[in-house]
Amino acid sequence: MPAAPRFHRAPFDNCRLCPLAVLVSAALLQLVQSAGGATLRVPADHKSIQSAIDAASPGDVVLVDAGTYKERLQLKPGITVRSAGDDTRGKLGLARAEATILDGGGEAGKGAGVEMAEGATLDGFTVTNVGTYDDALWNKHHATHGNEQMHEHIGQPGTAGIAVTGVSCTVTNNIVHHIGHTGIAIMGVQGKRTSPQILSNVTYRNMGGGIGSMKQSTAVIEGNFCFQNFYAGIGHNHASPIVINNTCYENIRAGIGVSEGSSPLVRGNKCYRNRRAGIGIRTGADTQPVIENNDCYENDMAGIGTEHGARPIIAGNECFENELAGIGQRSDAQTIVVGNHIHHNKTAGIGFESSTKGKSIVAGNRVEENATVAVGIHEGWKVHLIDNELSRTGGMPPIAMVFEGAEAAFVGNTIKGSGVAGIRVAGRVDASGNRFIGTAMRKGGPPNFAVWGLP
Prior knowledge:
This protein is mainly β.
């Protein structure tokens, strides 16, 4: 069962398609209807779904009654395969999807649970039992926050629940679970631009990612719920999709993972209670995502984390109540952190762990009421902090700490609190035009410096 998102929002409130997508879908439906596409019913007209697909022509609809079908499907171009019924909500997704089940037969079957085709639509099925789901292995890595997992590229060979390989198609309203690999796997093809639509699906307890975008894919991934997957809820490898309004929680690694040369737009998603970061970004200078207007909270590590030389733009996000930093950076990342609201995290608001050549521009953020420091900058970093509001009520630590071997420029910031200092310096700091507000003199120990330079 999906855990309730914060603020008690209904699970599907964020899954509505944008107006343009609705208009396009209506136009396509009207085009199909005007072309006089036939409806092939299963099991009334055909005993199996695949036999109905084989008999269908472009524009036809294969309409499948509720039941369990022990088969794996190869779709044909231009057809729609849809479960019978209306769009009444069930426990996880649509009631008709919960009642119409494709059972892949575990290890006995071959190929993906469903292999999509150009212009085809898969609407409203449960896809399960493709490959082997290993519950003991899932529990082991969940208990260790995924720290003992091998770092496998998300594009490693495997058999997906639903495979989208080099085609533009629509995958919508499906429930994909207990797959031995990725739930929904999207792969591009060199030299061919495709735009598959992955809309309003539920993926959980899969042994890969919930949704994986790989090999130059440029999908639209919108309004999906991805939870308790073995790797990320939504993962990327050399792909640049649009990832909007999804909810990713309780995955063993990140809610949304971006790596190996991916540059997606990640906007308006909710990522919470994941075992590592809400959104994790890693591996290489050509990993350059835009991470914008997401809510990342209650994750077991950072709300948003960047490492291994990645170069994201992180703008307008809210990161709160995470176990470590609201936004954390390490391993020579190069980041732009702009206009975020970062509050009530259990260590730093914005943290920079040790590196050798990390760089960051931190501008216009509101960083308040984090447990230790608003900003902590360790050795190897060069950070420019411009026009930020950094504050905390109470506590002993400084508001900003610059460690030995780090360099920081503070320009035009407002720094407010009652800790030992506004900025405590063991490295090098250039500070100009900042406003320091000491809220209370300390009793004993260091009083309440604006800037405290250590020996």
